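Dig into this one:

. . .
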Amino acid sequence: MIHSQSVSAHVARLYNTYPFPPEPILDEPPPGYNWRWNWITAAAFCSGRKPTRLDVRILDAGCGTGVSTEYLAHLNPHAHVTGIDISEGALDIARERCQRSGAGRVEFRHLSLYDVEQLSGEFDYINCVGVLHHLREPQRGLQSLAAKLAPAGYIHIFVYAALGRWEIQLMQEALALLQGDSMGDFRGGVQLGRTLFAALPEGNRLRRREEERWAMENQRDECFADMYLHPQETDYTIDTLFELIDKSGLEFLGFSNPGFWQLERLFSKQPDLIKRAALLTERQRYRLTELLDPDVSHYEFFLAKPPVTRINWSHDTDLWNATAELSPCTQGWPHQLLFNGDYQVVHLTEGEYLFLEQCTSRPDATVGDILETISFDLDGVRLLLHRQLILLTPHG
């Protein structure tokens, strides 16, 4: 068995050779937003309500070249952000990126996830994207993060899914065989990989998959190396993913793309199948979804450290007395055609538009106050919340 320190050294060498992600450095804040990196919207997704605190501590665990760290800093100007990574070369780029874009309240440390206990204090929010699946001991890595999470804090995680990466796994093994003892030569590996893809017949399944799904991002050598030459990768299924989660001591709050996991989208014209699926457990329904839609290449989800309090707004009185506001990760307002937090086009009905208009012009008004003046109802408010277009704050 390869020791974790040896794996970490190989991974660090990869990212020192090809710092990742290879996004350009700008002399201004990054464009747009990612609602998963905005403390307000992420916490609202996890808890059902707008958070009461903005001066939180955020850890970007495995920050790489600082693309996510920069967003975390600019989207959360009241927070203190710490980024850690095992690649010193990537951290140098991260520091320059944040300095040039004016991202304040950020610090970086050259640390492995295994050594995160060296950081002082606890964190309210931990972002860990594309890291756990590259650890020799992902369970140990997640438990290390869990130990640094404050009570009622949240972790946002992104890990690879096996079914949608099957062809990638095959090419990884093929390149390892062809490279032999020169596997640590990442630049040579990129050249070899590109030569191999070009040599395969046009109808070849691996070549076709690369051209159809990954070729655009893999034009950059950094992305090609990260995908096909990584020295350590663990790809998950729903079953193995929840084995990882269950051993962490954290509570699963949900996937951040819940629409994908709705079986109705796959067989909505067969109500008998929906009834059968309703008899399954939640995890069995997740597994059925990925079996029927095996293109899924990653899982993105939230975990929380107990005690966890969530509001579902099922009680009319609670919703009536709450205050509502437009989500900060919404683009295009004030128009009836918007982009939501996932940059999907949303067509507002007249009632939805009027409700949002009242939210922005009457910030102290309750939901009930607004509904007394327009033709709209509580179910419509719940739908806006479900679509992550509004934030709710409970009365008192």
Q: What stands out?
A: The radius of gyration is 23 Å. The first strand starts at residue 57 and ends at 61.
